[in-house]
Specification:
Layout lengths: L13 H5 L3 H18 L5 H8 L3 H10 L9 H11 L1
Helix pairs in contact: 2-3, 3-4
Length: about 90
């Protein structure tokens, strides 16, 4: 998979203030970005999981822990799908 890097500058003492390593902060930023893009319906679960650096199952688990729905279907759409299966 081809990747693209984006650089973000932070104050020199931010890692100390957050009590995180550079890798921990990088992972938190990736997950937060992926969640926000998924919530805004800019990315699918699979693509958001790629940005987060997680498997699809791990990303879905993270969404669940944040009480973010994985499925955006309405009740009417679900009922319509059920009717089509009969």
């Amino acid at each position: 998979m081809k990747t693209q890097s984006i650089s973000v500058d932070f104050p020199a003492d931010i890692l100390l203030a957050l009590n995180e390593t550079e890798n921990e902060l990088r992972q938190r930023i990736r997950l937060t970005l992926a969640v926000q893009l998924y919530k805004a319906q800019k990315l699918t679960v699979g693509k958001a999981a790629q940005i987060a650096g997680l498997s699809r199952l791990q990303f879905e688990t993270a969404l669940s822990e944040k009480e973010i729905p994985i499925c955006n279907l309405t009740a009417a759409e679900v009922m319509d799908d059920i009717a089509k299966l009969k």
